[in-house]
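Notes from hallway chat w/ T.B., transcribed later so I don't forget. T.B. wanted the structure written out for a chain they're using in a teaching module, and asked if we could keep both sequence and C-alpha cells in one place. Agreed to drop them here.
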Amino acid sequence: MSLLTNLIIASVIIGFAGYEIYKVAQKSKKGKCAACDYKCEAKMMAERAKRQNG
C-alpha cells in the first residue's frame, strides 16, 4: 500500500514539473517576457530552438 502511495506521489510531482517546464518553453516561444532582460533559462532555450530550426 505504501509503495503505491509513493508511486502516485512521485508521478504527480514529476508530472507537475514536466508541465511547468512545458509552459515555460511554450511561453518563451511566443516572445519576450519580463525576464528577457536577464539571462533566464527560457530565453536560452528559445534562442537554441531558433538556431536549430534555422
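Follow-up for T.B.: The chain has a mean pLDDT of 83. Might be a good example for the class.
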